[in-house]
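User: Could you go from structure to sequence for me? I need the amino acid at each position, not a summary. Structure tokens:
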């Protein structure tokens, strides 16, 4: 009899994809769906990347390449990191990956022993929690609170989580799902804590370049932190390359040497010819990249305006990422809901608006009182964004009582 290894039970998943499948099934029945549920992008990859990749294919760059990536791309990534962050990385600090996500698991494999503790943001990208526990470490969540203009992290609360077993702190700055960001003062305080307790930091900077106002800062740029920071670098967001699967790990050489060994065991090397396209993306004309950012900002502004006009909703206007994380506590109470999934399915069923909720971003923490949903606007055009959120608004602002019947909820559960 086939028996799956027990350790697989510890492996989580990215539940946004389950919501996506449900929305697709609902659409297949002839229903209009407004896709706010997943952080994919409906932009064409910039022509610099596409043309550079096609040329590389025609030039025969279709075989194996170095496990850490071709030297030209590693150099281009190091230059890009240094220019934007004020660091002094070189080619030996860069290992190319098939996407941003592999850095998470390889980082934990390389640096964390079973039983050691890893601090990570919750709500947060669910793969942190999954990889920590799958590799036998102890997942210790920290969270954020609502500030005046955005969500903020409580540095003192993070400090209180540190014990003798703490090995690593994972930062996602800028943050999925909330759009929260650390101030320079916050990063300096965290750096002092990391140095005092001899901690390694994984800085997930997938959204570093998706910024509309202000300037992104990396904790690696804080004095004393480059030698104890690993940066997760991704091409997916900045260059609309989600399906191309290309990213990199940026770290001290001794860590990159271990990552290289893991690369050999996992995938041998990242896609060869795509790396040439990525070089063109980094070195070439940035007009199309800037256009992506401009369009995203238009969507953000429209989304925030409509959401804040809905009774029972409070939505911050984050400076970065392509997510909104509105507080819908009052809304759900007004409509008679206390269950995220019933609420989410009700909205999908009655308006076609599909989104994820707080529960798709890590296990809820004890004492949570507020309810949140995540609105991703990277994969929906402005006209459909406006149409969908206005349908959501009209439905919520209508005087009707809770609208979904038990029969409807049961049918939705089988989508």
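Assistant: Here is the amino acid at each position, in order:
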């Amino acid at each position: 009899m086939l028996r799956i290894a027990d350790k697989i039970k510890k492996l989580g998943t990215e539940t946004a994809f389950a919501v996506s499948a449900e929305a697709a099934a609902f659409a297949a029945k002839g229903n209009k769906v407004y896709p706010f549920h997943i952080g994919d992008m409906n932009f064409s990859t910039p022509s610099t990347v596409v043309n550079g990749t096609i040329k590389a294919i025609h030039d025969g760059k279709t075989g194996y390449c170095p496990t850490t990536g071709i030297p030209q791309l590693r150099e281009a990534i190091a230059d890009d990191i240094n220019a934007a962050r004020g660091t002094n990385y070189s080619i030996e600090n860069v290992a190319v990956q098939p996407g941003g996500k592999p850095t998470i698991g390889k980082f934990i494999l390389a640096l964390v022993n079973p039983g050691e503790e890893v601090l990570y943001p919750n709500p947060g990208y669910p793969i942190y929690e999954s990889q920590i526990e799958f590799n036998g470490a102890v997942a210790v969540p920290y969270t954020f609170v609502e500030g005046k203009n955005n969500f903020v992290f409580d540095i003192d609360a993070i400090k209180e989580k540190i014990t003798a077993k703490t090995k690593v702190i994972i930062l996602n700055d800028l943050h999925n799902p909330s759009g929260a960001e650390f101030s320079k003062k916050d990063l300096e305080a965290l750096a002092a804590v990391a140095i005092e307790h001899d901690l390694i930091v994984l800085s997930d900077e997938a959204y570093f370049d998706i910024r509309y106002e202000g300037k992104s800062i990396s904790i690696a740029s804080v004095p004393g932190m480059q030698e104890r920071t690993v940066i997760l670098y991704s091409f997916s967001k900045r260059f609309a390359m989600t399906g191309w699967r290309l990213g990199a790990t940026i770290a001290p050489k001794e860590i990159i040497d271990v990552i290289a060994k893991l690369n050999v065991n996992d995938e041998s090397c990242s896609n060869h010819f795509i790396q040439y396209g990525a070089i063109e993306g980094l070195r070439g004309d940035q007009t199309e990249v800037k256009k992506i950012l401009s369009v995203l900002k238009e969507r953000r502004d429209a989304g925030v305006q409509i959401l804040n006009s809905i009774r029972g909703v409070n939505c911050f206007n984050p400076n970065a990422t392509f997510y909104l994380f509105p507080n819908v506590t009052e809304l759900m109470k007004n409509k008679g809901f206390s269950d995220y999934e019933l609420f989410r399915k009700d909205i999908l069923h009655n308006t076609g608006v599909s989104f994820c909720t707080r529960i798709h971003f890590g296990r809820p923490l004890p004492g949570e009182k507020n309810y949140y949903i995540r609105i991703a606007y990277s994969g929906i055009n402005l006209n459909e964004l406006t149409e969908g959120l206005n349908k959501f608004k009209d439905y919520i602002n209508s005087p009707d009582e809770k609208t979904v019947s038990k029969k409807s909820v049961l049918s939705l559960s089988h989508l």
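One structural detail worth keeping in mind: Residues 401-415 have pLDDT under 50 and may be disordered.
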